[in-house]
Amino acid sequence: MHLPTEASLGTWAERTGRRSRHLRRLRRGIETSYDTALQELIYDALTVQLLRVADVDRLLDRLPSVQFRPDERLPYWAELWPSAIALARYLWRAVDVQGLQVLELGCGIGLAGIVASRKGAAVTFTDYEADALAFTRYNVLHNGCTRALIRHLDWFTPTLTETYQLIIASDVLYERTNFQPLLQLYHRNLAPGGHFILAEPNRPVATAFFRLLRDHGFRYQRTSEQVELNGEQHAVSMYHGDRKER
To answer: In which band, very low, low, confident or very high, does the pLDDT at 10 lie, cut at 50, 70 and 90?
Structure first.
């Protein structure tokens, strides 16, 4: 499925009058493989509608058992996690992103980046999973994001050379193997004077990553967000930081 480039995404559909047809094509392509549903999230004056997998458990049941290692059977991108909801709310209420170049790592179905885009940022959405990017393509266009670029990114063999004033991610520290690649992305792709925001659901394994950040010249402040999802309360820590001044 084709999505216009960053420069043309916002104007292409409106200029040609084909936005609705383009959205229908994107959705039809997605629904050849997935049952979908629209989920609405409201952040004060902003309403975001997300196309998502309707039933993640059903999706999991139909996957071949050989497709994932035992610890990787869940297609993480398909779930809307509390950390993504918390990050989006934090961006909307507490962060001035107007005019910033923003990179989202592990974007899933695109929620946090969409909020940043609607606040005036130019957002590059990245994920390893092609299907996640297909949902993000739809959601970005459906929510009227005008400055967006969608790219595949493998943290272990990264191809990004650009730098960004803000790098955002949520719930990406569930495996220690992610620590060094993420640290290297911060070193390589965070612009001078830039910031990172990382939403983390207080997994014990993640503690070592934040020690690693401090040891490699980064600093951060930690705040807490509470998210209610499916009738349950979730505590999410927000790490907002930058490089230490030399």
So the answer is: low
